[in-house]
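Notebook entry, structure prediction.
Reason for the run: the old model in the group folder had no record of what sequence produced it. Starting over properly, with the input documented here first.
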Amino acid sequence: MFGRNQREAGTDRPFWNQRGWLFSAAFLVVALVASGAAWLSTDDDAPAARQGNPVGKGPLSSSAPKDGRPDPGEEGAATARPGDCLTDDSDQTPPSVSPQDLRWQELGLTKVPVSPSAGPVRTSGAVMWCFARTPLGAVLAAHVIPARMSGEDWQTVTDQQVVPGRARDLFVAQRSTVPPSAANGRAAGSYAGFALDSYSEESAVVQLLIKHGSGSYGTTFVTVTWDGGDWKVRANPNGTLYSSLTTVAGNNGFTMWGV
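New structure, fully documented this time:
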């Protein structure tokens, strides 16, 4: 009941002027490119946007080739964790309440939920990583990783925390056209809750609940996959990280984050 997408009128306008995405200025950069607004800039801001910071080294590898699927016989590489990443992965129950050790961390214009036990446990430069291989770890990764795409080091985050393949390449091409000025603004929304659409130890589809300042709600989906020893975002075939934002009447059916 929560997966229905609604296409708004006026999508030929620049994405930062579209009503659905003005719902939350905090998600302008990542959500508009990541939700299918394949806008290709031709203005003077585009060269600066393409430059960004170069891809830096990080702690994570990937067992996935360019088609995004693990090579046969590479299951060990897909599940092995870096030695300095230790988490308790015993609780495989989908969370029905906010974790007791919930913290909120500012990332640009928004705040994301984090947990000292479920992740991200480690931070290496721009990469916030080491999520528990649990339903809660998958949920937190679905919040944190896309939120890092609005920073100057988004290319490093993409290289480390988005599953490689043609979909990721398309995301990079689209994200590279976003002018830095599109990230400016006032946060008008916040992460309010979540629902697990599906979960296994290999993959999860997480529905994010976003609350507008007026009290209304919107939702979007993020898919994460266990790859290279951690949860990573799997881009959609059209190069998106999120589904299109959908307005919902309330928070029924969602687990709400504690304050």
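Summary: The first helix runs from residue 19 to 22.
The old model has been moved to the deprecated folder.
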